[in-house]
């Protein structure tokens, strides 16, 4: 069964991913790398296409291209899209991956892009975003409006969100006027704000002042600090005084404070005297302190001794002095650790010295772990030393060395060892699985050892899931409350589902196979429902089916709630079916409450309808509280109805006290004593 094509409104549910793309890696403030020839070659150096995909993807039509240098025409060279994408995404370096993707995608004409986009959902989940982004970026180079219209019709799991991000990134770069006109036609809301952000990033590269002017034209909320702050930061690099003047004109709030602090740091990197003079005359104590610390840190990167001497001067209040001293000494530690340590150890005993020592331990730990441990020993026992130990573990590359890891691990209290052992083991396993296993196995039996071994297996599975899972089976047997196979197996399912399933189905029948099979069904059901349901019915025990039905229904309902509910209706009657019904209905209530109520209205009275209405009303409360409560009032079971209405009223009070109080005062759905109690809370 194909994932259904949905209306343009469906893209809203992927906006979190779109925002992530707008701020992640090479998407932020930069273009995707240029296309390059990354196709495989035969022994004679000729470009070759990979073997046909096991999923049965057809051959892909590409544009005719002509080499001006050689005069040759490649013609309609056939490319197996999915195989090329998988091959490209296996490359380790990000730029190499992108060049390999471009080598195929840049040959596609618009019709070929459409065909390719329809196949993105067959890629592993961790590959879809990048491939869809490059597809959108490529198409936008020739027809951004058409590319955007197509991308908005795709479900996020088909790559729609990522494709929109790629389309608009390119559109804003090559045709800002057209991109602006498109944005202005959008209604106010998250969609418009998201694309406005990308447009302003592109304009800022050429003219921060123009970007700030455009932000005003598009009515960007000045509280959107990451947008306005990014513009002002770019501006400050060229004209800090003008940027500072513009920032001071912003409304009071965190966005303005952050912008002013950032400008102070940028300014001080070129002219510390002017930056400090400007920061020192700011009238608001909090932003003055933050701007001074930012400027002082920037100064310390160029002249740490002078910056630290200035920080210790008597002209600062105690809070500002502490903040300045900590930041400037930290910067000095990164430049000349020996000189900075001598300065810190010369400070008089007290809070100021302890804070500076803690920051120095973290800075030194990135370069010289043994020296950092020695410096850690200068701290008296207590909270500051404990926090410094934690930071050293989380941030030091020395954690890849079992000896160094054990050295600091033994200084921790037992409760801290339980919390931090998995982190140490994971850091170590990223570099040497064998060493990490040896370290974790040497720990005393208990929670810390088990959690550390689990984390090693999870990290190991990123590169060799079969070996990791087989080791777990032999060494960390699953318990009733914990299955260490689940994390590594889920990773394998997302990267190579066929191999993962084949391995899982070779396990002997029992709880372990049931648990892994259930997880596989949940992962597959949104994109390959027929295959997922075949596994559910053929490979899971009746007990496992009842336990997994709710999770399967919830996952499927995120993409096709009607189909999920139709499947639930065919399950054996009982608690498992009611739970699955509630899960699916809850998902539908969030994505399309109107359609969900249509389904509810056709359900016969009974326990299953009550369960479905309860799930619907709980999820719908955030969208339309009064309608949610009206539906809750139709629950047949009197006790369940009363509990549901009271629970909804309590949640509404927490989110919207005024609206909830008005409803409570006027409703006849609550007894008088309960109404009075709720109104007092």
List the defining traits of the structure above.
mainly alpha; 681 residues; disordered N terminus
Any overview of this molecule?
This protein is mainly alpha-helical and 681 residues long. It is 68% helix and 0% strand. It contains 39 helices and no strands. The chain has helices at 15-23, 81-89, 94-105, 110-119, 125-140, 144-152, 160-174, 176-184, 190-206, 208-217, 225-238, 240-248, 254-268, 272-280, 285-302, 304-311, 318-335, 337-345, 351-365, 369-376, 383-395, 402-409, 414-429, 433-441, 447-460, 465-475, 486-495, 497-505, 511-524, 529-539, 542-557, 561-569, 575-591, 593-601, 607-620, 625-632, 638-655, 657-666, 672-680. Helix 9 runs parallel beside helix 11 (225-238) and helix 25 (447-460) runs antiparallel to helix 26. The chain is globular, with a radius of gyration of 30 Å.
Structural class by sheet pairing and helices = mainly alpha
Reported for the largest beta sheet, the result is:
none
Low-pLDDT stretches are 1-78
Q: In angstroms, what separates the terminal alpha carbons?
A: 50 Å
Number of H/I helices = 39
Percent of residues in helices: 55-70%
**Beta-strand level of the residues, as a percent range?**
under 5%
Rg for CA atoms: 30 Å
Mean pLDDT: 81
Overall geometry comes to globular
Q: How many strands in all?
A: 0
């Amino acid at each position: 069964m194909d994932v259904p094509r949905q209306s343009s409104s469906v893209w809203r549910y992927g906006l979190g991913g779109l925002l992530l793309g707008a701020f992640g890696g090479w998407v932020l403030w930069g273009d995707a790398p240029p296309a390059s020839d990354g196709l495989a070659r035969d022994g004679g150096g000729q470009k070759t296409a990979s073997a046909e995909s096991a999923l049965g993807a057809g051959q892909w039509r590409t544009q005719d291209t002509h080499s001006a240098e050689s005069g040759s025409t490649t013609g309609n060279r056939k490319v197996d899209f999915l195989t090329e994408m998988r091959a490209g995404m296996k490359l380790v370096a990000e730029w190499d991956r992108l060049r390999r993707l471009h080598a195929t995608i840049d040959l596609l004409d618009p019709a070929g892009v459409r065909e390719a986009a329809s196949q993105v959902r067959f890629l592993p989940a961790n590959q879809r975003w990048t491939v869809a982004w490059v597809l959108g970026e490529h198409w936008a180079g020739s027809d951004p409006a058409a590319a955007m219209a197509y991308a908005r019709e795709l479900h996020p799991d088909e790559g729609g969100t990522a494709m929109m991000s790629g389309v608009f990134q390119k559109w804003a770069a090559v045709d800002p006027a057209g991109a602006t006109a498109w944005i202005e036609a959008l209604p106010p809301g998250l969609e418009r704000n998201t694309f406005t952000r990308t447009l302003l990033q592109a304009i800022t590269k050429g003219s921060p002042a123009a970007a700030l002017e455009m932000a005003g034209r598009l009515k960007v909320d000045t509280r959107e600090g990451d947008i306005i702050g990014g513009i002002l930061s770019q501006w400050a690099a060229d004209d800090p005084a003008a940027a500072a003047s513009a920032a001071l004109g912003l409304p009071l709030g965190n966005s303005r404070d952050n912008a002013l602090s950032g400008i102070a740091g940028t300014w001080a990197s070129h002219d510390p005297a002017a930056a400090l003079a400007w920061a020192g005359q700011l009238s608001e104590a909090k932003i003055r302190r933050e701007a001074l610390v930012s400027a002082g840190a920037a100064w310390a990167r160029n002249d740490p001794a002078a910056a630290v001497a200035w920080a210790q001067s008597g002209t600062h209040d105690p809070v500002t002095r502490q903040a300045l001293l900590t930041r400037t000494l930290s910067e000095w530690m990164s430049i000349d650790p020996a000189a900075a340590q001598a300065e810190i150890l010369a400070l008089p005993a007290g809070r100021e010295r302890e804070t500076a020592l803690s920051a120095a331990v973290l800075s030194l730990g990135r370069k010289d772990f043994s020296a950092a441990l020695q410096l850690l020993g200068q701290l008296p026992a207590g909270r500051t030393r404990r926090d410094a130990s934690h930071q050293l573990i989380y941030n030091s590359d020395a954690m890849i060395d079992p000896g160094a890891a054990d050295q600091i691990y033994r200084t921790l209290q037992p409760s801290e060892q339980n919390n931090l052992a998995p982190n140490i083991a994971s850091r170590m396993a990223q570099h040497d699985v064998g060493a990490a296993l040896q370290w974790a196995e040497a720990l005393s039996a208990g929670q810390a050892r088990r959690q550390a071994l689990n984390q090693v297996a999870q990290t190991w599975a990123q590169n060799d899931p079969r070996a990791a899972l087989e080791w777990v089976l032999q060494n960390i047997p699953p318990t009733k409350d914990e299955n260490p196979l689940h994390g590594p197996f889920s990773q394998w399912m997302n990267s190579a589902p066929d191999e993962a399933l084949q391995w899982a189905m070779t396990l002997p029948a029992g709880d372990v196979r049931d648990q892994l099979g259930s997880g596989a069904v949940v992962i597959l059901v949104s994109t390959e429902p027929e295959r997922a349901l075949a596994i559910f019915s053929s490979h899971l025990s009746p007990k496992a089916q009842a336990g997994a039905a709710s999770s399967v229904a919830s996952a499927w309902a995120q993409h096709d709630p009607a189909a999920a509910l139709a499947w639930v209706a065919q399950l054996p009657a009982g608690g498992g079916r009611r739970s699955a019904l509630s899960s699916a209905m809850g998902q539908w209530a969030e994505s399309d409450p109107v359609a969900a109520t249509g389904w509810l209205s056709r359900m016969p009275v009974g326990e299953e309808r009550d369960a479905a209405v309860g799930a619907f009303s709980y999820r719908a409360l955030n969208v339309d509280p009064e309608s949610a409560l009206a539906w809750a009032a139709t629950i047949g079971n009197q006790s369940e109805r009363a509990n549901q209405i009271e629970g909804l009223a309590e949640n509404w009070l927490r989110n919207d006290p005024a609206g909830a109080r008005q409803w409570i005062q006027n409703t006849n759905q609550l007894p008088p004593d309960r109404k009075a109690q709720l109104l007092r809370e």
